[in-house]
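Researcher: Batch entry, complex prediction.
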Amino acid sequence: MTELFLERAAGVLFFWGVFLLAPLLIDLSTAVIHLAAVLLFLSPSRKGPAAEVPANPPFISVVVPVYNSSATLYQCLNSIVHQTYPQNRMEIICVDNGSTDDSFSVYKKFQLDHPEAVISWASLSRPCKSSALNAGFSLSRGVYLVNVDSDVRVEKDAVRKMIAAFENDPLLVAATGEIRIDKDLGAGKNLIDVIHYCEALEYLIAFSIGRRFQTLTNTIFTLSGALTAFRREALYCSHLYSSRTLSEDTDLSYRLRDARKKGCRLGCVAGAVAYVEPISSLDRLYSQRVRWQRGELEVASLYRWDTGFFTALTRFTGRILISDHTLSLSRLTWTFLIPFLYLLGYPLPLVLAALVGLYICYLALDFIYYLTACRYVPADYRTGLKKIWWAVFFLPVFRWTVYWFRLAGIILALQEPGAWRVENPLRKAKEALRHLVQKVHNPASKNC
Amino acid sequence: MAFLMAAALLWVVGLAFFRSHRIWVFYFPWGAVGLTLLLILFLRGSPVEYHLERATALLLQQVMGLLSIPASVFDRAAGMVLVFIEAEKSWTALGIDIECSGLLESCVFLGLVFFYPAFSLPKRIFYASTGILAIYLINLLRLCTIVFLINACGRQAIYLAHTLAGRLVFFFLIVALYWAIFSRPTLAALRGHLHD
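Model: Structure tokens for the complex:
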């Protein structure tokens, strides 16, 4: 009896849930390829001797775009001047782009506290991260150019590891670091803490497995804006950052691929770690994911991705677009249709079992990713990750929530002009409803 | 029927509210999902479903005839097809109901195409009509796959043919259709916005 029930539930799941399972199937096939490649070619036990910078290290420039960063700027600059890379071979350029807080005071204090640091400040009048970075690069003198976001804390070996990677691989033209969430793992149990843990796990999987695989196959999709280094000539050949899309880092990564065509590579330097602040609220998470999704579509649209389906299937970006755009539309309706099957005559336990089955499939995938990714982090970070193993149970729910945020990104990309921060639609709807109720109760107030 | 009319009214009011306040993030899902559910509720058990199932069964019989697989339809049971199983030298009956007629998938598609933000009205109408035709043909191909597998492998292949093989064929081609109708025009529209 149970067997028959499970068979029927699986039938409902595979037959009706195919559009919900599809992203999982794509993730699963990607996971199998990623994990196989990463475990086979990048196994921790296979790690060779660490690449080192030469005895006479090249001069480098670190550019920090600043926008209302008074809360985080000091910590960021502090982490840069405490790098194991020789300080006399490094300059730091902060480029403010329209801050209205006291970021400059923080900078002045830092300069007084660290007179040995070669550090300068430039100002632009309007907020534009791309312009700030480009201005910083044009003021720089380094052979290698590193950009570090002002809300980032860089681990002390990160810059040395990145420059060593360039020095030991002449074909490497740009590299991103491994980005992690700056959070005391396991310390809190509130909702926002759980969201932070999910974010930490998401970044862990994305960088420890995803970016490693992309490095291996030379298919880096985005050089993270939080910590990226470039060979000067390659960056200038790519015409620097552009503000035409909301995802300037993905846009630049695409343009650098032209260099890749000449045999060069983009990569992620394992162990070059930068910590970013966790998202402060669901509003911010919504804004961030809307921006990412919109940016991804905008960049893809500029690089003529209007190819046929089968061509798209054979290419890395095409597969990302199919998963993030094509399937997300059918997933929208089927999310509501599966429970609706109950009204079409399917027994409720069967529908519920199918939904639980769906959750278990996603959970299993996340556990495999989590366990594999843990192999690639240092012991101290792994200890923290072990404390939050239970957060993996929330990861499918987190991804599901993020799916809705990204769907909003698709819709807004087609309906509204681009903006760094977007309004919470729930708040907008509540406000509109409040006005409507007010109008109904007091029609005379419409002129007020 | 009163429940359906009330649901439709609520849906229209919601649409008007989201549209007038430009809350597109809710307008699109509310419109697409709402239209899909309403279409399913209105069309279930309607003459449209009856004729669709009947036409699908007849067409399936014709296609099977071309492939030399004996099949016949019942006059008094719309959507019921008798298929000869070569492996077992016997016959089996396949029922084409709302689940197998492609009606649900067509409703999902119509919901999306009528509310997706990238299209003008003429384009919506064009995509809706070509899309529905394509879904009908894709579903027919799915049914052919199922019948072909049952004919060749016998009754024990029914679950596999129906739930997995047929569905995979259907899914793959539907994704290709969605790519052509939604993703490509989206990229084109965005490129236009960025160049503007």
